[in-house]
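Work Package 4 report. The design task specified in the project plan requires that, given a folded chain encoded as structure tokens, an amino acid be chosen for each position. We show below one input record used in the internal validation round.
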């Protein structure tokens, strides 16, 4: 672990930004510019495609994928972000697992508030199932708001009597629109990027007046996780949303769900994006890739386990 690397990342994220709420187009442009600086691994190729009614980005190894699929949901507070801004994350998961990833370009608020993103994610999952994809060979993964979508899409799938995917991997998931986690206050100022005010600004765009006391908006405190697949939740101790992960993990355990809560010290939200720059990011992605490969079920893995 490198204190110098962590200090450098913290300084980058603390660079001055305009004060007060910013227009949505400014938020989107700033996020695109920041994520364009992240390192995308070699050995992958990308292809534009569709998944259900929405565009998606197919990310796969240049020498061809092994059996199985990662359905990826990008971060950005349901307001900004795209499959392209998440490419350092999807690319690293693909490079480390050998699987293909389909990164969904779901609709964003304020133009398309709650529950548009969940509806798009569920449609994408249906499309994969309808194409013959075995749900046990499919993993939901995502970061920040997209990490929240890994959970709420499972809730929606269960409500629709669809099978669960093989596993969930969530990087710093946003799981509580009520913002009642203690870390919202205890990590204030320690988090180099987010504040309660910035989260409430984008959160209001997504909520569009809806009550946040809803399992699909605040699963960390309200969702019944019975029947969920194994889950890996990764977060950093410097993020105001830390308690979103810790409380969801507690709910998962209480519901009898296999859950791994993986907390890294002195790193910010979605620190995995800094792979190639921050040792902890590469190590966390290695652990995430191992979790995926351990929990995915394909004809090859079934045959190997039976031998």
């Amino acid at each position: 672990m490198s204190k110098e690397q962590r200090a450098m990342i913290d300084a980058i994220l603390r660079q001055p930004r305009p004060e007060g709420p910013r227009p949505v187009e400014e938020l989107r442009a700033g996020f695109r510019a920041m994520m364009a600086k992240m390192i995308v691994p070699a050995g992958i190729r990308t292809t534009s495609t569709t998944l259900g009614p929405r565009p998606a980005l197919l990310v796969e190894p240049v020498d061809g994928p092994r059996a199985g699929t990662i359905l990826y949901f990008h971060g950005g507070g349901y307001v900004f972000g795209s499959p392209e801004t998440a490419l350092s994350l999807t690319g690293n998961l693909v490079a480390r697992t050998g699987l293909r990833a389909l990164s969904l370009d779901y609709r964003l608020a304020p133009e398309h508030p709650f529950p548009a993103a969940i509806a798009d994610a569920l449609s994408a999952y249906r499309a994969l199932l309808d194409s013959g994809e075995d749900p046990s060979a499919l993993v939901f993964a995502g970061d920040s708001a997209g990490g929240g979508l890994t959970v709420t899409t499972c809730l929606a799938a269960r409500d629709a009597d669809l099978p669960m995917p093989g596993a969930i991997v969530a990087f710093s998931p946003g799981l509580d629109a009520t913002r009642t986690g203690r870390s919202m206050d205890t990590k204030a100022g320690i988090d180099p990027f987010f504040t309660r005010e910035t989260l409430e600004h984008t959160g209001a765009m997504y909520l569009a007046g809806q009550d946040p006391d809803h399992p699909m908006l605040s699963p960390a405190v309200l969702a019944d996780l019975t029947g969920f697949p194994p889950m890996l939740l990764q977060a950093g101790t410097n993020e105001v949303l830390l308690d979103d992960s810790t409380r969801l993990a507690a709910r998962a355990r209480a519901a009898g769900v296999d859950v791994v809560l993986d907390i890294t010290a002195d790193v910010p939200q979605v620190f995995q994006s800094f792979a190639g720059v921050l040792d902890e990011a590469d190590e966390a992605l290695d652990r995430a890739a191992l979790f995926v490969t351990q929990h995915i079920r394909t004809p090859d893995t079934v045959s190997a386990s039976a031998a």
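The radius of gyration is 18 Å. Validation will be extended to a larger panel in the next phase.
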